[in-house]
Amino acid sequence: MSRSYSSSKFRLALLGLLMAFSVLALGHTAFAQMGGGSATKAYHPNPILVGLDYTVIAVLALASLASIALIIDALIHIRASKILPVETTEHVRTLINARQFKDLMDFTSTDESFVSKALYAAVRRAHLGYSAMRDGLESEIADQTSNLFRRVEMLNVIGNIGPLIGLLGTVLGMIMAFMALHYTGGHAKVTDLSYGIATALWHTFGGLAVAIPSLIAFGFFRNKIDKITARAAMLSEELLETLRPAEAKASPAAAASAESRTPAARPVPRRAGADSTKEA
Length: 280
Description:
Blueprint (H helix, E strand, L loop, with lengths): L1 H6 L1 H27 L11 H31 L2 H4 L2 H12 L3 H10 L3 H10 L6 H54 L6 H52 L2 H18 L10 H8 L1
Helix pairs in contact: 2-3, 3-8, 3-9, 6-7, 7-8, 7-9, 8-9
């Protein structure tokens, strides 16, 4: 049982987060006891508010780390050389020009580039006709574009909820300041109020510090994805058009073979009796 617990990364991360939260809470209480006292009556922040305060800090820290991880992931994967590599495109074009459709199917079925996936979705429907091939291409282009946008969508979510989390911390800080004022009977010193006000301002700063870079990165990568996918879509359609002459040549042959298999209509012989009746 202990081995499985120690080998679980999620449980170890949760245990580390709880330990860090405990250390921060103890430090927070000690700081409040040292700096929040007065000559007559020492004010100590409510432990529940202290816990909520550090919960907000932990959430903002996790959101900041998630935003940094998403930005690094986008920098690695959202590139023209990754989505639309020139070598892959030229190899696909060479296979099409050489009419090596078997090799084209094998290559596009395993390659992970945008153009290869789009063309594979089209080529595998070749037996259904060119219109079906084009529908498959357009559907795959839409799916890949959506996947790329979903890769950075969480940056938009973090950018929108960051200020709200900071606002929650701001409200907590103001509650602490007014509770200090109430606890001292309206005669709170600056040291009694400064902790709550500082907490409110720091949370506001933390929420904005998380949101602003996330929204800037989201806008940058969204525009980049839009440009790259537009180029990839046009290139995929261009390559698909080069397959159309082969189908056009095959269509008359198929029509001729179908016509040869259709039996010709035979003339119906006229009866002699009917002709003699008409003459009479």
